[in-house]
């Protein structure tokens, strides 16, 4: 299964349970077969030792399935299974993870590229890093270096001048975002396709529809969705919808790359989702492959390997019990959300939105509102978000440029039909005092963002990967990557 999931009781702040309906097309065998699959999934989550956290699956008749998902075509199913999974906003999760590491003493740098390894004989003793923001290079010395560079693993392994021990292939997956009212359903959907599965996932006031799984050997920093990718998703989801979706219903489109360990198969959907750790030369550990859901296991395996090579004792790994920044205190604040709303003058739904995005760190966002009440207002062109969230992204979450805020710290770029362009100037003006931008930099940020959106739209009109990639590359990055 490939759900966007990362459930655990201690991570409640960033993950939430989501119901999924699996429409059955055949009587008899399919219910037994798929039912056994979800029962196993339920059993595995109990045996993980973290408690269930999620309700168990149920079998539904066609009538009951249509009651929870009236937007389905009646002839698209003979019955259904309902099961639960968990969902997380990956970019928010990474931000929390990085801030947690910094609290434990990690030095963190974004827009910093490793351009070479420092060597003493065969041994790697650090890395040479190019500062993409300010220019120039600096050195970082370390007893052990861990290379965790995802789809760039082959390139970073090449920096040691030896053939890597394994290869990573990039598999492109795209998603569409449509407004919630376009699909009449109180549950997410999982549909079988000829190659894999397709999800329809509730996402605030929207649905996310995805995904695809195709090899990608073009520009890795800007995977582009083509017209063919979008058609593929619309065609498959429309097979079960009473009112089909059209291109005009699509608010946002985004594409990402899965780092898969290269194997014998040409089809990326058949490659392993397992990870591997290697120690190609003394002083350098490489970890590659894997999935988001297994990131703590991957991290443990990589760090254990690095620690093993140190000439001193280090205590056993405790990652499993380390809460992320903002997790401790979340439950108590959630219970107090009505009081927080009263205290701050915000609607309780706003407080819930903040708690679900920042956990206990919501108090830091609210401090900004307390010093400047205008930050408690919603953004004019993206009213789901408060102005304070933009300031916070720049002051506390390492956002350096407009697209950091519009595409990753918030999801405005995929949650509005204008893809964030209407709100771009207001957001840039909010970031400006924090980052010391003058009017010229504000104009430059907005202009770059508008060009990026136009290039993405153009790529999504192209028939295939080659032409989509060429169109996407028409917009230069604000800081060359
Ligand atoms: C469409 C889609 C759906 C997915 N669904 C799921 C799912 O449901 N569940 C799940 O568990 N997983 C899912 N995944 C997989 C998951 O997103 C990836 O496994 C995960 O993001 C990989 O993270 P990573 O850090 O290993 O690699 P990446 O995300 O590729 O990150 C590598 C990092 O290395 C940096 N880097 C590269 N070269 C250098 C250099 N020279 N110097 C410094 N930094 C460098 C890059 O900037 C980048 O930040 C999905 C992926 C996609 C695309």
Automatic annotation (TrEMBL):
Residue span, Alpha-glycerophosphate oxidase C-terminal domain: 317-441
Location of region: Disordered: 451-481
Record-given protein name: glycerol-3-phosphate dehydrogenase
Family matches, as PANTHER family: GLYCEROL-3-PHOSPHATE DEHYDROGENASE, GLYCEROL-3-PHOSPHATE DEHYDROGENASE 2
Residues in FAD dependent oxidoreductase domain copies: 51-290
GO molecular function: glycerol-3-phosphate dehydrogenase (quinone) activity
Pfam families found in the cross-reference section: DAO, DAO_C
Cellular compartments annotated: Cytoplasm
Bias (Basic and acidic residues): 451-464
């Amino acid at each position: 299964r490939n759900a966007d999931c990362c459930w655990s009781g201690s991570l409640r702040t960033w993950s939430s349970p989501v119901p999924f309906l699996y429409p059955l097309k055949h009587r008899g065998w399919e219910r037994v077969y798929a039912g056994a699959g979800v029962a196993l999934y339920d059993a595995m989550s109990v045996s993980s030792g973290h408690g269930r956290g999620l309700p168990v699956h149920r079998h539904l008749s066609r009538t009951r399935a249509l009651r929870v998902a009236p937007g389905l075509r009646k002839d698209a199913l003979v019955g259904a299974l309902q099961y639960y999974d968990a969902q997380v906003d990956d970019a928010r999760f990474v931000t929390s993870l990085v801030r947690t590491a910094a609290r434990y003493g990690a030095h963190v740098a974004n827009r910093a590229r490793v351009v070479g390894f420092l060597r003493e004989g065969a041994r790697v003793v650090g890395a040479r890093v190019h500062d993409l923001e300010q220019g120039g290079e600096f050195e970082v010395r370390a007893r052990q270096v861990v290379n965790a560079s995802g789809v760039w693993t082959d390139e970073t392994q090449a920096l040691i001048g030896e053939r890597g021990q394994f290869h990573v292939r990039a598999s492109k997956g795209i998603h569409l975002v449509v407004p919630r009212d376009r699909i009449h359903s109180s549950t997410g959907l999982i549909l079988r396709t000829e190659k894999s599965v397709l999800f329809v996932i509730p996402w605030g006031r929207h649905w996310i529809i995805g995904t695809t799984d195709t090899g990608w050997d073009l520009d890795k920093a800007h995977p582009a969705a083509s017209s063919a990718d979008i058609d593929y998703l619309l065609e498959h989801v429309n097979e079960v919808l009473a009112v089909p979706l059209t291109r005009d219903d699509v608010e946002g489109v985004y594409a990402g790359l899965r780092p898969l360990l290269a194997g014998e198969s040409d089809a990326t959907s058949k490659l392993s989702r397992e990870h591997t750790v290697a120690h190609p030369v003394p002083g350098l550990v490489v970890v590659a492959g894997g999935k988001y859901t297994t990131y703590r296991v991957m991290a443990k395996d990589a760090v254990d390997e690095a620690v093993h090579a140190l000439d001193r004792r280090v205590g056993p790994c405790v990652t499993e019990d380390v809460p992320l920044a903002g997790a401790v205190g979340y439950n108590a604040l959630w219970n107090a959300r009505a009081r927080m709303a009263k205290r701050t003058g915000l609607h309780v739904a706003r407080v819930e939105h903040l708690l679900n995005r920042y956990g206990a760190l919501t108090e830091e966002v609210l401090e900004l509102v307390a010093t400047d009440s205008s930050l408690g207002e919603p953004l004019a062109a993206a009213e789901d978000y408060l102005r304070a969230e933009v300031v916070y992204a720049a002051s506390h979450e390492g956002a350096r440029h407009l697209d950091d805020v519009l595409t990753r710290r918030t999801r405005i770029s995929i949650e509005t039909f204008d893809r964030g362009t209407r709100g771009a100037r207001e957001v840039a003006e909010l970031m400006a005092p924090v980052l010391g931008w003058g009017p010229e930099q504000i104009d430059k940020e907005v202009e770059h963002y508008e060009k990026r959106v136009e290039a993405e739209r153009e790529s999504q009109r192209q028939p295939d990967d080659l032409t989509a990639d060429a169109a996407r590359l028409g917009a230069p990055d604000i800081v060359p990557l």
